[in-house]
């Protein structure tokens, strides 16, 4: 399932894979439901569910090679900038 995209699903597919589809619903923008090949409804996760995912991702790189202040100091300075970017 592609993240942060719109997905088109038939009612039959939704019935067959309801658990998987609803588990990933907060990771996509919206789900267009079709009946007889024609779109008839849009299904979206409530904003609180999307916020839970974002909160869970905060600090995900802690303890990895990206958790390095020296690295980020270098990244924030570019030759085209006179001053460092404040993160």
Give the helix level as a range of percent.
25-40%
Q: What's the tally of helices?
A: 4
**CATH class of the domain at 1-58, anyone?**
Alpha Beta
Largest sheet properties:
3 strands, mixed
Low-pLDDT windows of residues: none
Which fold name is given in CATH as the topology of the domain at 1-58? Answer: YefM-like fold
Strand order within the widest sheet? 1-2-3
Give the end-to-end Cα distance, rounded to a whole number of Å: 32 Å
CATH superfamily membership of the domain at 1-58, which one?
A: YefM-like domain
Helix/strand/pairing category: alpha+beta
Radius of gyration: 20 Å
Name the helix and strand elements from N-terminus to C-terminus, one letter apiece: EHHEEHH
CATH architecture of the domain at 1-58: 3-Layer(aba) Sandwich
Strand content: 15-25%
How many strands? 3
Mean pLDDT: 80
Q: What general form does the structure show?
A: elongated
Descriptive report:
Strands 1-2-3 form a three-stranded mixed beta sheet. It is elongated, with a radius of gyration of 20 Å. Strand 2 and strand 3 (38-43) form a beta hairpin. Helices cover 36% and strands 20% of the residues. It has a domain at 1-58: 3-Layer(aba) Sandwich (YefM-like fold). It is built from four helices and three strands; from the N terminus they run βααββαα. By secondary structure, the protein is an alpha+beta fold. The longest helix has 11 residues, at 47-57.
